[in-house]
Write a structure and sequence with these properties.
single chain, 306 residues, mainly alpha, Farnesyl Diphosphate Synthase, 12 helices, 69% helix
């Protein structure tokens, strides 16, 4: 571990702060939207690359922003060797590797890069790109930031479902077509539900810290036992919703291959049920949910190509 007195974070420190294992949550809705646009013959490779890059920048920026504010608010206090690796922040602040002001400078740069990308695409496809981007950016910033601090008032999970579901997927589709369809909004609920479930399971090992800091998220309000039950229900809803979209012709039949993630979901639910009161042992459920997200969204995208 790097000394607490380090003043110049190196590249590896920033990689740790970026928490790249959560990058798919920022880019897969754009991939799904691109796959649908490709199947419709409207795919724009340049706009896809720019949108993908912007979404990646915002996801990394959001992850770092949330970690920074959680540290400043006193929510994230554990040293890295006492952490569940999938919750509670990256540990770069509690270990003194990176200072909040250093992090904020990088976060500003990432969001500014995303803004430039949005302006570029707005000039090409219309200013609707910018309006959708503003909605998504507002949700991502106000998730932890004052005055709303959505994550601290039991609204963060729902807003992440919306922002990282229909909103981001619709934006990823608009950059190809200049429009938003009802189908893309419905399909966008899939990554949103995955995001909802991931946030729930990631909140469980942080319950005691969040309660002490007054972070009144859903797990705080429900308690870990009920939160892990809601996690189970959320996964049931996710797979039932996928089947409903396939049966109603909104997604092609091949998209049903995303149900292949069900065995992983069963494992995650069992681990959560057994170890919801153990922040370290429940980590495997957190890891499985990261995999479930990637498997589900990737197979949905592949299915859209048919």
């Amino acid at each position: 571990m790097k000394a607490l007195t380090s003043e110049r974070p190196d590249f590896q420190d920033w990689i740790q702060a970026a928490r790249l294992k959560f990058l798919p949550q920022g880019v897969m809705p754009v991939v799904i939207a691109g796959a649908l646009a490709f199947s419709e013959g409207t795919f724009d490779i340049a706009n896809f690359v720019v949108a993908f890059s912007a979404a990646a920048a915002v996801q990394i920026g959001l992850t770092m922003f949330n970690d920074t504010l959680d540290y400043v608010y006193g929510t994230d206090c554990k040293p890295i060797d006492a952490k569940n690796p999938f919750s509670g922040g990256s540990g770069v602040f509690t270990c003194g590797i990176i200072k909040p002001r250093q992090s904020l400078l990088v976060i500003f740069s990432l969001y500014f890069f995303a803004l430039l990308c949005a302006i570029y695409m707005a000039l090409d496809m219309g200013w609707g790109v910018m309006w959708i981007a503003i909605i998504g950016a507002a949700i991502s910033i106000l998730y932890s930031a004052k005055p709303l601090r959505l994550a601290y008032h039991g609204l963060g999970e729902l807003m992440m479902l919306i922002g990282y579901g229909p909103v981001l997927t619709a934006w990823g589709y608009f950059v190809h077509t200049g429009m938003v369809s009802s189908d893309i909004l419905l399909i966008g609920v899939i990554p949103g539900l995955c995001m909802w479930a991931m946030i729930l399971i990631n909140e469980i090992p942080d319950y005691l810290e969040d309660r002490a800091a007054g972070k009144r998220n859903l797990t705080y309000r429900l308690g870990p036992k009920n939160a892990k039950n809601l996690f189970f229900i959320s996964l049931l809803v996710l797979y039932a919703y996928i089947l409903a979209l396939v049966f109603n012709g909104i997604m092609p039949p091949l998209s049903a291959v995303s149900l292949g993630g069900i065995p992983l979901a069963v494992m995650a639910v069992r681990i959560a049920h057994r170890y919801y009161n153990d922040p370290i042992k429940v980590a495997m459920a957190n890891k499985l949910m990261v995999i479930i997200y990637s498997v589900t969204t990737a197979t949905v995208a592949i299915g859209m190509l048919t």
